[in-house]
Amino acid sequence: MQTLRIGMIGCGTVGTGVLDILHRQRAQFEALGFDLQLKGVLVRDASKPRETCFPNAPLVTEKDFLNEVDVVIEVMGGVQRPLDLVLPALQAGKVVITANKAMLAERWTELKPFAKTGQLYYEAAVMAGTPVIDPLSGILRSSQPIALQAILNGTCNYILTQMEKGKDYQQALKEAQDLGYAEADPTLDVGGFDAAHKLTVLARLAFDPDFPYADVSVRGIDTIPQDAVRKALDNDQRIRLIGSIYAEGGQWKAKVAPRLLPMDHPIARAASGRNAMVFFGDECGEIFVAGGGAGGAVTASGVVGDLINYLQGILGPKPIALKAGTPSDPFEDLPEV
Ligand SMILES: NC(=O)C1=CN([C@@H]2O[C@H](COP(=O)(O)OP(=O)(O)OC[C@H]3O[C@@H](n4cnc5c(N)ncnc54)[C@H](OP(=O)(O)O)[C@@H]3O)[C@@H](O)[C@H]2O)C=CC1
Ligand SMILES: N[C@@H](CC=O)C(=O)O
To answer: Which one of 32, 89, 132, 151 has the minimum C-beta count within 10 Å?
Structure first.
């Protein structure tokens, strides 16, 4: 049995879920030949009560234990602070698993070299535990990508679904926060920026490794009136916040915007709080993936899935450049709201 020393940064909605899975799945890690040792869990307030089944989780407020681990799991959030914590670990040759799409999108210059070496794992950063990074960096690479369209933010999908049921925007946002879906700053969700972070991660992974976050055109749902949501329903349509990547003039483009979707559109059927993605590839055709996109347990399952991949000898996803091919606008018939 090989000992694997783990250090975790953050123990909130996602971190608590990670601790639970690490405890519940310990037989699986042993079956893979690993004895996992949790050396520390960095938090702001170690005395705060936390609901986790992990016995005696070593909660600390000092980062020194990170020098003594093999794998760092970052589920804290933010941009500069987590980057300052994970970069030394990556530079020391350690593996980093993160759910932090804001850090990935905004500080790619520093992180990309470690994505290239396969030290950086980030399945949970996009669509939580619903697998998209894994297939896009694996089996779907055999196809020339044409376009991608997706619901990438669980909070917005929850809010819009609840507004369809007549609930007020503020009440629906409060519920999404209570469910653990929203970011610490919910402006990131409703303003479309969280979806833009995730779209950037996807764009770099499957289309252009250097796609700039600043090039994503972003609109959110914070100005969508209840009337518009109702009117769409009356016409057998739904308003959803859609992220899209497509080719135009020989270049990849990325856009986040609220759009009108026919009720029977595959991604319009994603239930309250869930995410969905359609990927169009020349050879594979249309591939549809849907599932939980926010919340503690499902996101934690993506994080621990990365750990299991690492333990099985699978490297983190490597970004590869693919030429923008056939000009495509899969949204011709999905008007912006
Ligand atoms: N919630 C979700 O559905 C999803 C979240 N993510 C990403 O996962 C990450 C974590 O999200 P989530 O769990 O919801 O966030 P939470 O706000 O619930 O948890 C954040 C954790 O980080 C700790 N923390 C925050 N700042 C500091 C600091 N300066 N020093 C030490 N510890 C700190 C907090 O400590 P304390 O507990 O003491 O306050 C807390 O344990 C984010 O990057 C988010 O974008 C990704 C996919 C889905
Ligand atoms: N705030 C995010 C959480 C997961 O990434 C969302 O609502 O989708």
So the answer is: 32
